[in-house]
Design a protein that fits this description.
homodimer, four-stranded antiparallel β-sheet, 219 residues, globular, alpha+beta
């Protein structure tokens, strides 16, 4: 096994650069995307970042639908409109007003959409026998890798979750057993915000380390 | 809003460095951890990387239990032993033999464990009204950020999923509504492998881009 050694040690400067990419990553919506198409090389590089994500039992249970077709986007957008209306109705008073003023997706504005599916196996998966969600979680790790790679390439990415996963599957003619995990909008942007948009707009406040760390056991 | 602009553009060299961190990240198990404790500063830096992850509706639905207590680890390890026996039984013949030869965790060998919980809210969450798993997925994004930060700090991290989440909750005295998403083992290592261990050991083969990308719609 020792012949498969990777002895790369990262430097302080490299560690700081990773932190800068992590903290510069934003959820990008339709008011910031530029129409300029993404080069195939850029798209492939973002998806390859996903392929180097960890996956439970090395199952790599993912598929990526790369969407540029306007008719497909329009059909997906219709599901967003429906779900967004239902979503807004769950909030009350001022929070509902604030919700309705937010731009929450960029399906049509972004030159590229990527639907990311979980493809369950018909046999047991190592590491997934006690926690059945692990395959879904592997797909999420792939999406987070893609998000960071996109940001480093100065490409914006927004994750749209206000969708009916079954309607999206139908539009994309996805196989019965596939599950939609994330629907992503990608494109160059006119700017990245320095903080999460919902923090800037005071929807909620940023949690500090001390608020979310517990030592050894809850008391 | 334009005053909240981040105009940092990353260079080709910086993009390549991110790719190197992404592809150098490994799942590290007990046969590779060194007993050397992690500095508090290092632990905080890894958790802070998690805090800069995206979260649905800026809900930041996460808590991190930092575990160094040997008794807690021993109790968690007991759940692993139980679940691992059940897990192995799901595989047949040669696959079962191969399974039993794998070292799949480092709970006791790693100087540090971190249990990462999803803390659901009692009110609607923006972006989670149509896809209820989004809060759990946000916590997974935090874990992936931590994993990458750890690797850049030359710290190994292994995600142990062969555990009964309810037993882990009980050991940690976690509140009723908390859900265990990931149980992580962290420490310095004697080496990182150049490829996933399950790839080296031919448990499965690496999927290529062409196998997992579909254009516009499934046919």
């Amino acid at each position: 096994m020792k012949e498969f050694k990777n002895d790369r040690l990262f430097s302080e400067q490299e560690q700081a650069l990773l932190e800068e990419i992590l903290t510069s990553r934003r959820d990008v919506r339709g008011n910031r995307f530029l129409p300029k198409p993404l080069e195939k090389e850029t798209i492939d590089r973002i998806i390859r970042a996903g392929l180097s994500a960890p996956s439970v039992g090395f199952s790599q249970p993912w598929e990526f639908v790369v969407i540029q077709d306007v008719h497909v986007k329009t059909a997906i957008k219709a599901s967003f409109e429906e779900e967004n209306q239902k979503g807004a109705a769950e909030f009350k008073d001022q929070k509902q007003q604030a919700y309705q003023q937010l731009k929450l997706e960029g399906i049509e504005e972004a030159p590229l959409n990527i639907a990311v599916f979980y493809t369950p196996k018909n046999e047991p998966v190592l590491g997934q026998t006690s926690m059945p969600d692990m395959g879904r979680f592997s797909v999420v790790c792939a999406i987070q890798n893609m998000w960071l790679m996109a940001r480093s390439l100065n490409v914006g990415l927004g994750w749209v979750s206000i969708l009916d996963p079954n309607k999206v599957k139908k539009v994309l003619k996805a196989p019965e057993n596939h599950e939609l995990i994330g629907y992503l909008c990608l494109g160059y942007t006119d700017l990245f915000y320095s903080k999460p948009e919902l923090e800037i707009k005071k929807w909620d406040t940023k949690k500090e380390l001390e608020e979310v760390v517990i030592y050894n056991q809850y008391s």
